[in-house]
Write a structure and sequence with these properties.
Strand order of the largest sheet: 1-4
Distance between the termini: 39 Å
Number of domains: 1
Radius of gyration: 17 Å
Helix content: 40-55%
Largest sheet: 2 strands, antiparallel
Number of helices: 3
Length: 92
Amino acid sequence: MLDFSQLFGRKNQSSHVAKDRLKLVLIHDRMNCSTELLEMMRSDIIAVISKYVDIDTDEFNIEVSSLECDKEGNKAPVLSANIPIKNLKKVR
């Protein structure tokens, strides 16, 4: 049987996985924490949010940047997330 999702579906999933892993490595360098910890955080965020909404995990993105936190110019790491929502789920 012909699978239309393969013909007209999304791009190669391995490229999305590689892109996500590269992003995690960059985040690791900026935050100075382990890649394993960042992957666990990403998985936990997806698990919690998925209880309430359907999200596009291929486009899910977390990013660490620095934010000036006081007048002396000290910076603190900031975790930002871009989470595309597909649909809201009905909550009981």
